[in-house]
Design brief:
Oligomer: single chain
Number of domains: 1
Radius of gyration: 19 Å
Number of helices: 6
CATH class: Alpha Beta
Shape: globular
CATH architecture: 3-Layer(aba) Sandwich
Order of helices and strands: EEEHEHEHEEEEEHEHEH
CATH superfamily: Vaccinia Virus protein VP39
Helix content: 25-40%
Structural class: alpha/beta
Length: 274
């Protein structure tokens, strides 16, 4: 199983380890492919400066719970937990390697405040680069009588100092794909009930971001891991992950999910080698 660091075992026989930096050539070798169930401030505090290859996250910037009428019980509400962009960005800026990329999911209401929190930083610090747009395959609810239906999310794209070159084919900042008949298709929303979480992001989009901004073997850090989709995408891309998730239920389910992913990838590797 993946290792859940910093807490009592959540899963029987899970490999757990306290957060201790190892004394070898890679100061993060003891943290690679681990999930820290607890406050990400604790994990940030143990990370050396200039050590992370990519930071990709969806912070709890607002309270959220889907109100769509469904046959299932509602999943746990997402609660904004004292998220403040400027101090969070200070931590991001410290731990990213020079040139490393930063992706932060947000909505149209939050986006201006995130951009403002990047203003006034030194040229070698965290810098705004672009806004990516995920057009969803269906729209949300919102104000049913007097507003347009929401059908997109934003991703703030920033870098530390001068951005490193991209690692894969350059593409437009509106995220979509084309099918075999060259028709434009939108990435589907993930059901709340697939992973018992209200804001799960499509693995396909996360893989695009990871492959654009890292090389194989590099480390992807998600300090608000939620259902641990970033970890799954990192493994699928041949990258290492480092995750933090405050909610113990999400952390436990994320551990189980990543264990299944690891077994599936191992099975594919054995099959291809036979």
């Amino acid at each position: 199983m993946c290792r859940i660091a910093g807490i009592r075992p959540l899963v029987p026989n899970s490999r757990t380890a306290p957060i201790e930096l190892q004394h070898d050539t890679d100061p993060l070798s003891g943290l690679r492919n681990t999930l820290h169930a607890g406050d990400n401030d604790e994990l940030f505090g143990k990370l050396p400066a200039d050590s992370i290859d990519l930071l990709l996250t969806d912070p709890p910037y607002k309270d959220y719970q889907s109100n769509r009428p469904v046959a299932h019980d509602k999943v746990k509400k997402i609660c904004a937990r004292d998220f403040e962009a400027r101090p969070f960005f200070d931590q991001v800026e410290r731990v990213l390697k020079p040139g490393a990329h930063f992706y932060c999911w947000c909505d149209h209401l939050t986006f201006p405040g995130l951009v403002a929190a990047l203003e006034g930083r030194p040229t070698e610090g965290l810098r705004y680069k672009n806004c990516l747009v995920w057009v969803k395959n269906n729209h949300g609810a919102g104000d049913l009588k007097s507003n347009w239906a929401p059908q997109h999310e934003f991703i703030l794209f920033a870098c530390k100092g001068r951005a490193r070159p991209i690692e894969s084919r350059r593409r437009g900042n509106v995220l979509y794909y084309k099918d075999d008949e060259d028709r434009i298709r939108f990435f589907r929303k993930v059901s709340n009930y697939d992973f018992e979480h209200g804001t799960v992001k499509p693995i396909e989009i996360l893989k695009i971001l990871i492959e654009m901004s890292t090389a194989p073997g590099e480390l992807v850090f998600d300090p608000y891991a939620g259902s641990c989709s970033t970890g799954e995408a990192a493994l699928a891309c041949g990258r290492d992950y480092l995750l933090a998730e405050l909610d113990p239920d999400h952390a436990r389910r994320g551990d189980e999910r990543l264990d299944e992913v690891r077994r599936a990838l191992s099975g594919k590797s054995r099959h291809s080698g036979s």
